[in-house]
Amino acid sequence: MTNIIFFGPPGAGKGTQAKIISEYLNISHLSTGDILRKKLLENDNLAIELKKIMAAGNLVSDDILNSIVSSRLTKETSKGFILDGYPRTLHQSEFLNNFLSETSGLINFIFDIQINFETLKNRILKRSSEESREDDNIDVIETRYNEYLNSTQNVSNFYKDKYNTKFYEIDGSLEIEEITQNIKQILKKS
Ligand code: AMP
Which residue has the higher pLDDT, 64 or 43? Predict the structure, then answer.
């Protein structure tokens, strides 16, 4: 069983890599952004609330995320999983740690995909025209990037300190295939 967390600012390619690696290892890919985007289609009161938050590039509440992730992980315990987009706050990482220790789960690899702001701005704008995501416009990119710097970077630093031997920094400016190869090499030699 292999359990993996992907970190990286929006547009770093963590969703793309998480999908490729989940197919390669035949484990579940749990993208909290994708789960939330599906939820938006339900058009109920929660969906309307979520839509406002996500379209502005802000983070959805920890309670909602923790409950989504714990209910999904409960079903995934035997196969292994990739977390893509979670944890994004220190409170979420505490919740995850507690959840894993209660279920005797372990994180085996943490990949932190790194990329500079200019490169990711161009990537996100390209993706917005291909996928028509409302949160991929120029005004929102900055909010999402700042959200990452202010909140999620503390979380990846926490893992870097605590899980030093499982934490790998990945150059996100390379081509998709090169990034995949780098990740696969780390998976193979460990
Ligand atoms: P993503 O596809 O991972 O970039 O997520 C898209 C949006 O979903 C984010 O900008 C947040 O509004 C929301 N979201 C996804 N994951 C989380 C999380 N772990 N905590 C809070 N909000 C999240």
Answer: 64
Mean pLDDT over 99-110 rounds to 90
Is 124 in contact with 118 (CB distance < 8 Å)?
no
Indicate whether 190 belongs to any domain.
Answer: no
Provide the domain count of the chain: 1
How many of the other CB atoms lie within 10 Å of CB of 75? 10
Calculate the alpha carbon distances from 16 to 21, 82, 118 in Å: 9, 12, 19
Q: What CATH number is associated with residue 165? A: 3.40.50.300
**Is 32's C-beta closer than 6 angstroms to any atom of ligand 1?**
yes
DSSP H or E run through 109:
strand 109-114
54 lines ligand 1 (CB under 6 A): yes
